[in-house]
Amino acid sequence: MGDVVAESKVDFGALAALHKWPSLANQRRPDREPYQVSEGTLDECISAFMKKPAATRHLYEIRTAPQPPLVTAVLSPEHVIELSRWREFL
Q1: What's the predicted TM-score (pTM) here?
Q2: Residue 83: its H or E element
Q3: I need a surface site. Which of 7, 44, 62, 77 has the fewest CB within 10 A?
């Protein structure tokens, strides 16, 4: 990912929305759809995600316009954590 990061710019001001999956016993409910909990910029949504307890982050995802190659339309918790780490450099 290092070469891709060096050549890429991410628009952290792009519109994004933080979504949460309904859960039962701290597990995603596959029979339900995620619902929006906040909306703002990609940077704001990453910050809101990172404020969630680590034990519940797997229930969240961020949706935004794709910015290939680093940003997909739906960002998994692992992807959000990586973007958070790289935020200062991108």
Answers
A1: 0.87
A2: helix 77-86
A3: 7
